[in-house]
Each structure stands twice: as structure tokens, then as C-alpha cells.
Design a protein that fits this description.
- Helices cover 39% and strands 34% of the residues.
- It folds into two domains: 34 residues; 130 residues, no CATH class.
- The protein is of the alpha+beta class.
- Strand 3 and strand 4 form a beta hairpin.
- It comes from Cloacibacterium rupense.
- Keywords: Signal.
- This is TonB protein C-terminal.
Length: 169
Amino acid sequence: MKNLIFMSLLFSSFCFAQNDLEEMRNEDQLLLSENGRNTFRLDIRQPFTLNKVYTCKKSDFNSQFSKAEFPGGEEVFVKQLKKYANAYLDRNSYSLNGTFYVSFDVDKDGKMKNIVVEPKVQNAEMFIVDLKFSLLRIKTLWKPAVCAGASVSSRVKLRLDFTTDFTDS
């Protein structure tokens, strides 16, 4: 009789173990579908556009003006921005598709200030904060715009084209 009870308990424990394994497999399948990954493609259009020069007369603007420049050229700036955007934009928090415009002032000292991201998109506050942070990580000073031999503040505008691809891993 003891053998019969022992065998029935042993058999029933294997049944419960089998049931637990099947439940775990179902949970793993659900987790596999959630382990997707977003990847960004960022295209930055060049040349950058000059939006506004704050203190330059029209007569000086036509003859004695040079726009703000990044040391090494726009390609170096684009490379650095892509590096920091890749590091600081959270791919899992938002999915981006479309064109965004980033404009900022280059002051007389060559520092970036007053960064603005447009268009304003609903629920994109964290993206805008992360993108601004990516820009501010670029520590190299710009060569400021020059008008009539003096450094002047100017505004630079960039076009950023984002494409997000989702891959299931």
C-alpha cells in the first residue's frame, strides 16, 4: 500500500511539473515578441541654413559677412551629432519618423545657445530633452559669424530626417 501511495504522489508531482513547464514556455513566447528593438536612421541635411543674423546692417551683410562655421566643417559637426544622438536618444522610449528642425544661436564667443526643436509633437518632450542634451554634449566652439570685421551672434538651422526601424529579436 505504501508503494502505491508513493507511486501516485511521484506521478502527480511529474504532472504538475509538466504543467509548470508548459506555462513557462507560453510566457517565454510572449516575452520573445516583446524583445523587439528600435533602430534610428538619422540623416542631417547639409549645408546648414543661416536663419538670422542679429546685428548686421544690410549693406554690411552683402559685402562683409561670413557665416558661423564649425571647426573642421559641417561634416565634423554632423559626425559628432550622430555620435551623441546615438548615445543619448533612447530608442525604446519613442519611435521617430519624419523631419525635425533644430535651430540654435551661435553667440559672439562661438557657444551654442537657445536650442529649439520643431515641430512640436505630442508626447515628444523626452525626445526634445534628449536631442538638446546630445547637441550640448558637443563641446567644440563654433567660429562665430563676422560682420564688418566684428563677431556677431547668428542663428543656425539644421534639418534632421529620422527613420525608425523595428526589428524583432
